[in-house]
């Protein structure tokens, strides 16, 4: 199958940004439904189970929509995320963390349906509690995360298979003698990659750990499968999953985060001031460091609707890459006192004025989950744009949230 029947989305031109209180993270329901429709069809055609990774997308007010499309599980990386999965996602709870503490583990054990250990040391430490839970009738799946030492992630910060990684057990350290009670393997080495990368990754995984798959009931392919990005080879993904399942007779799990929130919404901001120091700079009511940390960590340059790139040989380029007439350049910065709270220079068709909306595109995945209250700056609202054009203001943050975080 190569074609999917996907629902339409709300045109950006139809959104009245002035009607949305600033600042705000705005999820577009129509775009989320489009992604969910595709993901659910991949799940059905491939036979894999696709669950949502909270580290990338944890907007729980949208979880009813996920359940509507057959997404019935979530993967958590902490006790708090596991509680959120049980209370709000209301499906299978998959848990993996680089290490579990003695304090948190008993509660995590109560919540988890799938529990993945990062090392055999952790497995040995907590195995008695797992065995006791099973003896009491719990159906609890246990896995070991492995590191096949193959990765195609360009940014070292996001490469779990890099040299000396603490994430997962390498073949050299793998303990076949400790597999009693383990019924699955987990790997994660992708980051917004295509299915061609997954196919090559599986070659490395099977080369290192294929001999143990006959003892396993399931394999978790981790996240990083950006199947909702334009140009992603979905037929290949379906084929790769089907072939792997046929070769090894195992249940396959995928746990993307970005694929759910990819291109599903925006961060709406407003101009608070325009200052001049050789160049014009616009100060916004959002913060790069507090609200868009990946811009500094990755780093990457987000798209601003209606704005283009800085001057280049007398020309400017719009956001679709075409050359346009010279406009009005501004350095775009945030409202904290951090000197580096700056995204960069953009070209706008008209001079910016105080109160103008500046809208950052694709700001749902890996944004809200990483925000902070640095400097005490106002945290953006969380809202949902409905298909009929109605805007639902879901959450507003104030002093109490800021105070509670510090205590």
From TrEMBL:
Substrate binds at residue 294. The keyword Nucleus does not apply. Transmembrane segments: none annotated. Pfam families: Orn_DAP_Arg_deC. Its cofactor is pyridoxal 5'-phosphate. GO terms for molecular function: diaminopimelate decarboxylase activity. It comes from the Bacteria. One of its GO terms (biological process) is lysine biosynthetic process via diaminopimelate. Residues 180-363 form the Orn/DAP/Arg decarboxylase 2 C-terminal domain. Keywords: Decarboxylase, Lyase, Pyridoxal phosphate, Spermidine biosynthesis. This is Putative carboxynorspermidine decarboxylase. It comes from Deinococcus deserti (strain DSM 17065 / CIP 109153 / LMG 22923 / VCD115).
């Amino acid at each position: 199958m190569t074609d999917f029947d996907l629902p339409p989305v709300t045109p950006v031109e139809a959104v009245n940004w002035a009607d949305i209180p600033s600042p705000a993270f705005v999820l577009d329901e129509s775009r989320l439904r489009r992604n969910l429709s595709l993901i659910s069809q991949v799940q059905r055609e491939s036979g894999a189970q696709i669950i949502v990774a909270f580290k990338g997308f944890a907007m729980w007010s949208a979880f009813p929509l996920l359940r509507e499309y057959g997404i019935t599980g979530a993967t958590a990386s902490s006790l708090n995320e596991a509680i959120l999965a049980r209370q709000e996602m209301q499906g299978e709870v998959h848990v993996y963390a680089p290490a579990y503490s003695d304090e948190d583990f008993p509660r995590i054990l109560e919540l988890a349906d799938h529990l993945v250990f990062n090392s055999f040391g952790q497995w040995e430490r907590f195995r008695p509690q797992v065995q006791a839970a099973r003896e009491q009738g719990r159906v609890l799946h246990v896995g070991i995360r492995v590191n096949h030492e193959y990765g195609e992630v360009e940014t070292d910060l996001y490469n779990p298979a890099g040299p000396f990684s603490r994430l997962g057990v390498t073949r050299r350290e793998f303990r076949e003698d400790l597999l009693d009670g383990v019924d699955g393997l987990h790997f994660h080495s992708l980051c917004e990659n295509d299915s061609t990368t997954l196919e090559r990754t599986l070659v490395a995984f099977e080369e290192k750990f294929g001999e143990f798959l006959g003892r396993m009931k399931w394999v978790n392919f981790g996240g990083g499968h950006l199947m909702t990005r334009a140009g992603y080879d979905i037929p290949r993904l379906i084929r790769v999953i089907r072939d792997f399942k046929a070769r090894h007779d195992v249940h396959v799990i995928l746990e993307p985060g970005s694929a759910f929130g990819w291109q599903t919404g925006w961060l709406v901001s407003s101009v608070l001031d325009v200052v001049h120091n050789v160049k014009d700079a616009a100060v916004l009511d959002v913060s790069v460091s507090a609200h868009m940390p990946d811009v500094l960590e990755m780093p990457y340059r987000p798209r601003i609707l209606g704005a283009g790139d800085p001057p280049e040989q007398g020309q400017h380029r719009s956001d679709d890459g075409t050359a346009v007439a010279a406009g009005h350049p501004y350095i775009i910065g945030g409202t904290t006192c951090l000197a580096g709270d700056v995204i960069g220079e953009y070209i706008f068709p008209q001079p910016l004025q105080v109160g103008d909306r500046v809208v950052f595109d694709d700001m749902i995945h890996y944004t809200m989950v990483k925000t902070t209250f640095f400097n005490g700056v106002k945290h953006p609202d969380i809202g949902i744009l409905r298909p009929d054009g109605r805007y639902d203001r879901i959450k507003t943050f104030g002093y109490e949230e800021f105070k509670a975080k510090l205590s």
